């Protein structure tokens, strides 16, 4: 039977050029600023490290992914690779990390609330969760729906997030900040045209 890692590797190879680039690069400076320096960082769903490498300098970074082949590339960048499935309990002790990154991950999960609970467990008091999800309710998605199509064309997306739904998911954190980024017309109306929602959430100290 084909493993989950094999299925994702095949998907990324077919649709995403093996995942060796970053969707919505406008989110990078926000994630880098949230992570900071001198931290022990966990990047969930890191793939080959295309995003991870931007906050690697000055930090000790663990990259977790289900795809073993992608993790080999991440390890070559200096990222500590861990092969695991984020839909299962994270293989780390309580309070192991200062920051956790989940870039374009939560929308792929059947039970994102379970992963968020695990993230809170492995974060130290005052730790930061930073990440992003597609802005599923932007105008382009709504138009697709009105034409009788699925709002998104990625078959691996299992969840759609509005700002309210994202805040509800992250309600267990002390402070949550959302930013709208990406897209040619975001400056006209960020909520309607931004491609991504970037979130930064702080665990209670």
* Helix coverage percent: 25-40%
CATH class term: Alpha Beta
Would you tell me the structural class of the helices and strands? alpha/beta
Uncertain segments: 1-5
Can you count the beta strands? 7
CATH homologous superfamily placement: Vaccinia Virus protein VP39
Question: Strands of the biggest beta sheet: in what spatial order?
Answer: 3-2-1-4-5-7-6
- Pattern of helices and strands: HHEEHEEHEHHEHE
CATH fold assignment? Rossmann fold
Outline: globular
If you average the pLDDT, what whole number results?
Answer: 87
Biggest sheet statistics: 7 strands, mixed
Total of helices: 7
End-to-end distance: 44 Å
How many independent structural domains?
1
How would you portray this structure in words?
The protein is an alpha/beta fold. The chain has a single domain, classed as Vaccinia Virus protein VP39 (Rossmann fold). Helix content is 29%, strand content 23%. The protein contains seven helices and seven strands; from the N terminus they run ααββαββαβααβαβ. It has a seven-stranded mixed β-sheet, with helices on both faces. It is globular.
């Amino acid at each position: 039977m084909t493993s989950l890692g094999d299925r994702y590797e095949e998907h990324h190879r077919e649709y995403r050029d093996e995942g060796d680039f970053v969707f919505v690069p406008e989110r990078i400076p926000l994630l880098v600023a949230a992570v900071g320096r001198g931290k022990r960082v966990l990047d969930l769903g890191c793939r080959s490290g295309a995003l991870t490498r931007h906050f690697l300098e000055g930090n000790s970074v663990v990259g977790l992914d289900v795809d073993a082949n992608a993790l080999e590339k991440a390890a070559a960048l200096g990222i500590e690779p861990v092969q695991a499935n984020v839909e299962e309990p994270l293989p780390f002790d309580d309070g192991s990390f200062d920051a956790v990154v989940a870039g374009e991950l939560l929308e792929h999960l059947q039970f994102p609330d379970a992963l968020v609970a695990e993230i809170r467990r492995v974060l130290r008091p005052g730790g930061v969760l930073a990440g992003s999800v597609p802005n599923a309710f932007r105008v382009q998605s709504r138009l697709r729906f009105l034409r009788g199509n699925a709002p998104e064309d990625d078959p691996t997306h299992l969840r759609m997030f509005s700002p309210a739904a994202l805040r509800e998911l992250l309600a267990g954190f002390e402070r949550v900040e959302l930013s709208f980024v990406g897209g040619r017309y975001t400056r006209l109306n960020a909520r309607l045209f931004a491609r991504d929602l970037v979130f930064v959430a702080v665990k209670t100290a």
